[in-house]
Amino acid sequence: MNDIANLARIVTSRALHSVPVLDLNGEHKTKEYQLVQSLLDAPDATQNQLVKALYGKASTPNIRALQKLQSRVRGKLLNHLFFLDHSDSRHLVSRRYQSECLDLLHKISILFAEGEYVLTEQLLKRCLAMAQKGEFTQYVVQCARMLSTLYAQMRKAHLFEKMDKLLQQAQHTQSLEDEAERLHAQTQLALARTVSSRRAVLPLLPAHLEKLEALHRRAKTFNTYNYLYRLRLATHELQGNYPEIIRLTALATKQLRDGKLNERRFDKRYNHFMTVFAHLRSRQPIKGLKLAQLAMSDFHPSSSNWLFFQENHVLLALHAQNYEYAQQLFTTVMKNPAFSKQRPAALERWDLYKAYSDFVHPVQRMGPARRVQMARWALMLPEFSRDKSGLNVAILVLQMLVYMRERNFEEIMVRLERLRKYQQRHMAGSGMIRSKLFLRLLRIMVDNGFNSKKAAEGGKAVLQQLQNTNPPGEAYAEIEIIPYEHLWALILEMLREPFPVPVANGTQDRP
Does a structural domain hold residue 498? Predict the structure, then answer.
């Protein structure tokens, strides 16, 4: 009982007069509690709005009172970070075990400073065991170093020598992991830039992979495995080798199931994401959609990973021509409170996905007013980033489709000319073959006077070539929101429609 008695002495003699956390469950609704609730209800509320809600009037004294209140609440909310629940399996699995190690190390540091060596040793041994089981090498180093210091002070030479040997081994392993992390980070930075930088780094990846393989052979830890595994997937992604991604992710799932990968560290959400993405890009949308539906339960709706995963989920539904389900997904995603907090580029992508979905489904149920509203929005779409990301093509194609439905042939020709210029400037090389083939189909449509039957006949050979051409790798950043084959079928169907829809801007259709 001595350890508990010592703890009681330390805590009671050094305790603060008031606990610096918020009483979120108390009956007395303090100003601190009211501020938290106001921020939860209206995260974008202005300072004046908060002052009026809490104090009734936006006077100078009340504004100062709010600023002091915000400072106190911020500090107490930060203290609550020590008491978060990490048990939800839909979050990163390693976070739970990492938090346990950090929690113990914080307590150990305080006990060591208080001279409570017996309890310090007990907790250090427990933390060391947890760190080794979770393969958290940096915490193994911290625990081994503190135990070495502790044994030196306690004059326990045998235990010191044993722990010092473990410390040196862990430090060596950490140096290998640090090198692997540095190499992986450098590569990821290059891959996160423009399309040209991704193409430039592609020839360098084999050498980077070879270095990571060598580091993993020496360290044999989860960290080095993970950096190597992710870079392998990134390499195949850039090359467009999606079947290999499917094979590698399936192998990793099997290794996890067989106990060959650390279940406390392996992020199955990332594996789900890459598997589903690879099925999308390898033109297996039906199988990929089934996998996405099964994997949904492993993603927490509050996380950004959920939204990224849902992008591929929606695209799989669109590629599988399951438009009803795609619309249901859009409704679910846009109701998520985190949706509006995404970066502008992500919101623009969702806008474009939704525009395509609204265009193709369900055409017969869309009234004239809604169709005109959607058309106006599509025609005002901003141009996306100038780094040849591929969305520029998607925007121009969507605008052309809108004008196609309206029989505004002059504007169709304008968009086709923009696509031609874009092809000349940005679609060189073999990575954009599918886009080039689709543009050829559009030219065939024009050359045949927008006649559905003649265009279908004249485009047979090009369509067959398109069907036989796989999507390129991510190094070429081509995005097909609706597969070109499906768009061509939709275009031919629209050309057979006898009556055009009124033009969105009010001009008359060309006869």
Answer: yes
Residue in this structure with the two tokens 């193409």, named with its chain if needed = 199
> d(Cα 396, Cα 418) in Å, to the nearest integer?
8
- The radius of gyration of the chain's CA atoms, rounded to the nearest angstrom, is 30
Lowest average pLDDT, out of 8-17, 283-292, 369-378, 402-411, goes to 369-378
Structurally, how many domains does the chain consist of? 2
Q: Classify 127 in phi/psi space as left (phi over 0), alpha (psi -120 to 50) or beta.
A: alpha
CA-closest candidate to residue 240, choices 434, 484, 395, 419: 434
With 70 as the cut, is the pLDDT of residue 384 above it?
no
| Cα–Cα distance measured from residue 274 to residue 272, given in angstroms and rounded to the nearest whole number | 6
8 Å CB contact between 244 and 258: no
Contact between 338 and 301 (Cβ < 8 Å)? yes
Band (pLDDT 50/70/90 cuts) for residue 391 is confident
The predicted structure's pLDDT at residue 510? 34
When mean pLDDT is compared across 16-30, 203-217, 369-383, the lowest value belongs to: 369-383
What is the reported pLDDT for 11?
82
Please choose, from the candidates 437, 428, 485, 456, the residue with its C-alpha nearest in 3D space to the C-alpha of residue 283: 485
Residue 281, in any domain of the structure: no
Which pLDDT value is given to residue 294? 95
Distance of alpha carbon 167 from alpha carbon 163, whole angstroms: 6
Closest listed residue to residue 405, CA positions, set 433, 374, 427, 429: 374
Specify the DSSP class assigned to residue 508: P
| Residue whose token pair is 């190390």 | 105
Please tell me whether residue 30 adopts helix, strand or coil conformation.
coil
Decide which of 53, 83, 113 is a domain's last residue: 83
Residue 19 lies in a domain: yes
- pLDDT higher than threshold 50 for residue 450: yes
State the number of CA atoms in the 13 A half-sphere of 324 facing the CB. 1
Q: Do 276 and 312 contact (CB within 8 A), yes or no?
A: yes
The whole-number pLDDT of residue 388 equals 41
Residue 285's identity, in one-letter code, is P
Which residue type is seen at 100? E
Residue span of the structural domain in which 2 resides: 1-83
* Whole-angstrom distance, CA of residue 306 vs CA of residue 90: 10
Q: Which of 83, 107, 125 is the last residue of a domain?
A: 83
Q: How far apart are CA 346 and CA 311, in angstroms?
A: 10
Whether the model pTM is above 0.70: yes
Give the HSE-up count for residue 485: Cα atoms under 13 Å, Cβ half-sphere.
16
Taking residue 153's Cβ as centre, other Cβ atoms within 10 Å add up to 12
> Can you tell me the distance from the alpha carbon of 261 to that of 226, in angstroms, rounded to the nearest whole number?
10
User: Is residue 377 assigned to a domain?
Assistant: yes
